[in-house]
Amino acid sequence: MSEATLPVQAAAPPRLSEDLVAVGLGLAVFVLALLSLAGADALGWLVTTSVWTDPSAALAPISKAYASLGGAGALLVTYLILTAVLSAGAYLLGDEVRRFALAFTAVFAIAYASWFVGSWAYLAAVTPADQAKFGVAWSLKLTNEGGYIVALLAGLVIANAFPTFAERLRSAVRPELYIKVAIVILGAFIAVTMASKLTLASSLMLRGVAAIIEAYLIYWPVVYLIARKGFGFSREWAAPLASGVSICGVAAAIATGGAIRARPQVPILVSSLVVVFAVIEVLVLPFIAQTFMSHEPLVAAAWMGLAVKTDGAALAAGGITQSLIQAKAAAEGIVYQPGWMLTVTATVKVFIDVFIGVWAFILAYIWTNHINPQAGAQKAQFGEIWERFPKFILGFVATFLITLALALWTNAGSSGQLTAAIGEANGLRVIFFVLTFFSIGVMSNFRQLWQEGFAKLAAVYLVSLFGFVVWVGFVISWLFFAGVKPPLAS
Amino acid sequence: MPKPNLREATSTYEPLLPIEKKLIGWSLGTGLALLVVLLVINRLVPLG
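Predict the joint structure of the above. Result:
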């Protein structure tokens, strides 16, 4: 069994589920951001990093009201507040607070250092004008969001070259928690983006339905068939594997494992593989999208949501794709409004997530009544739909609806105050993304998985993902989004 | 309950049961039909 890829072992039983902790943290950030509408700048201390050649000038607080803190002060305050708040979250999740705080200190330091390195002008400067401004003769043109890739690579190096250190970080390596908090905050950011062009936004929602059909009714049966017939996997392994490849990775594999009454280790082993392949996808697909789809940004964004598994990796890939394509477009003189590509990726992913509970119930019904009926065993219950529903989606919906209402019906929306307020929350969302990237890297010990005999499971995954899922995802994204462009920046 | 390992995942042959074939067939059939319906809607209600 892969210890390096298993979930964190809690010191005590969790007092709250991870989803509820994520919703609480995300809503707290959202409320603090909204306080600025009443004149209280409660998130202005947050550190941001600009593209730099002079490292001493790179960091600054996100709000000028906190300029006296300076860059280093803002970084310190951000670290202290995040450590305190996430330690409270760790306590609610049953973890030992001191252990978490120590591990988080290292995780935050390495992850933010990666973000900082990613903002170096030689990596991040995009246009010739930017290069001239920073005085650099060349650049990889990754934008400052290339810091996500640096964080992922840093995590991979630690996981594979320093496994003992990776083990020490384990308590704070929580990609699922970080990405769920980020998704709750993202709801507000998406609402602000969508409010500027409601017709396009509502059309995108409609297209989200196609993603649900594709994931559950096209991908799942094909991958299940490949695993069962092509590779001879038993039902107990094939079903979680099909869900892991088809739906949204870890959460779907675990929900399916529970639904078909598989032994708990089976979906966890499958999840290990999901994470490893998600890493490969994040490192490869955004660059393919930039090379071949830069003139179809929303096709590329939908493709990331459909092809990349696990919420964190998909949104990460969407974010990187957005940066890379915007950079390429900017070099050609086309400046898209920021946020639309990430909005499409997130919409696709969230729509898919919503139906995990329903799909798990359908599988549970079939397994407990037809495939593995056991006298006295508990049959599938309707309550399982709610039980397996990813509750953090409720936080996303709440921040989305409240922000949309504020944007459409209040002065704050029309005056730009709301955009500024949510912009501060979005700064924190970026930090949670970086933490997610780094954590995914630390969880991916390739060598250990190989030694444990993952080759055949990986073969099914490889055949299904790169032989089918990725390309069908591309075709369907093309059918629904080709020719549609994000609005241009004014 | 025995601890699962990766080698056992393919060690015993389990033939596809009729209910599994039904699940695969119905899922794919319904999915393809719904995708066609959505594509038609997509043409009738263009994005934008």
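The longest helix of chain B spans residues 18-44.
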